[in-house]
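Changelog excerpt

This revision adds worked examples to the README so contributors can see how folded entries look when concatenated. The first example is reproduced verbatim below.
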Amino acid sequence: MTTETRRGFIGKGTAALLAGSLGGMGVRTASAQGLPDDPTPEELEDLRSKWSFWLDPPKGYDFKRESRLVRRYEYSDCNAELLLQRNGPEEWHWQRVLKVFPKKIDGALPAVGIPFYYVEAMLGHELDDESKALDHFTEICQARQLARRGYMAITCDLSQQNYIRYDEPRDRTYWPRFRDMSLKLAEDWPMWNAHAHRVFVTRLMLDLLEEDPRVDQSRIGITGHSLGGQTCFYAGCLDPRVKAIMASDFAFRFDQSCWDILHYFGGKLAAVRADGLENYTLLTLSGAKPFCLLSGFYDDDTSFTDMVKAKGYRSRPADLMFINHALKHRPPDWALEAGYNFLDRKLNGKWGNKPWA
């Protein structure tokens, strides 16, 4: 399906659920009419058991939880701290974690986790030189963008950067890392998968917010783009510390992208679906957390059709928000602002001054 087709397409059954539409900008919330009944305790326990089987670390994946501060940075519009955090049982299993926060801190901050390939991408430039911008990521440097809005943002290198120890150094953009990491994980822990490992290390990263007195523990959200969107969605649904989720263009439906390839579910997706599991069931399991999805290329209006299958939202349908900018795989500024405003409402009780804010 082309981008132009996506722009005007409304999936079957969606029209009845669009009474909460917020105008012609592709921003929608659900309508209570047509949303499913709330889940029963038995349904929630069944979902918990099934998702736990596919996502939880296997027995034996044990290690001492520890971290240490490496360096502090001062930039023109934000400050940052780089930490190392152990994330696995091998001696080299350490992930870099970057906290980015406003220049001035006045009281406990809301915080947002941002999983992505490596920490510099979400900052938008090299750690040691603010003038060296990472051009490919300057539109989506969410850690820096959120720090400007008064949040502490926390991001980490994902699994492909540190699960394997190479004989020779590899650049952070050495993309065969995904293949190598996935194959080694399958060899070490055959019942696990690379996607579940990313979710695990993201939740581990969130542990570092609990230890930080600058963070308001009642106002923690999560966001991410593309692979980071997939990871943040799963971590946000599963982690009780996360109060709101905003994800960008990650393929909400399993048939919209490559969920079953090696460095995602790794051939296990058919079995996952045979258990009756789809991504909207994670929203049900989350306790119907506020969720905003930005759609551009991998997602389309049928993503919203699936979102509204989640149970638990009938009494607060506006907690399901869908923004379809239909502009390929990079959200425009207005769509990102709308997503950030969603987090502002859910974490800070703040409303914007535009119809879609």
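The second example, added in the same revision:
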Amino acid sequence: MTVVIRAVLIAASLALELAGCATTQQAAPHDPWEHFNRGSERFNDSVDRAVLKPVTIAYRKHVPQVIRTGVSNFIGNLKFPTTILNDLLQRKLLDAGADIGRFVLNSTLGIGGLLDPATRVGIRHNDEDFGQTLGRWGVPAGPYIVLPLLGPSTLRDTPAIAVDWQTDLRNQLDFDTGTRVALGVMSVVDSRASLLSADATLDSAFDRYAFIRNAWLQRREYLVRDGDVPEEAPLEVEPEDP
């Protein structure tokens, strides 16, 4: 269950962020496997509705906010070596320095990451992964694909998941099996809990699959380019007849 419904975790967040620019569904130019992808998306959604969403609702209802915040901080801190490595691979030395400072401060004064003193002192937070690094190196995204249980991806980003797995401390620290499973479950539930508000937006979409696909691809391009995405050319309007 460590990776259950990553489709919803990622796509719901990005769809909500881009609701303003993705309200009209556009044909994606890189979706040659749409038939497979739609079936995979339906499978992921059915598992989410049957298992993950009910568990997440109960988690938010019965677990105090202070504990949920500590869990989020702890899990986020374990993922920071991935961000730091990809900062360096992209030659973002200032970002790498900030993220190293954040990781060290939260791991020490923050009691292993349960607290977040780095945010209080104004150290910025970056988010990088190996798929973004490949994009910065010029590797094209390739076709869009929805992976069962893993969710939205591209042909470029799919193998990058394995690299990120190796640099994530959740997978590298010497936890016993029970602790590792519990940590994986909590990671998924914690991420899903922060996205419950996105459900209404997704459910109201005329074509849920196309909405998620377009929003995810736009957001992914935004991350790879660090926000430097060229604006769409304005539509040419033919002059009216006199």
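Reviewer comment on example two: The mean pLDDT is 84. The radius of gyration is 19 Å.
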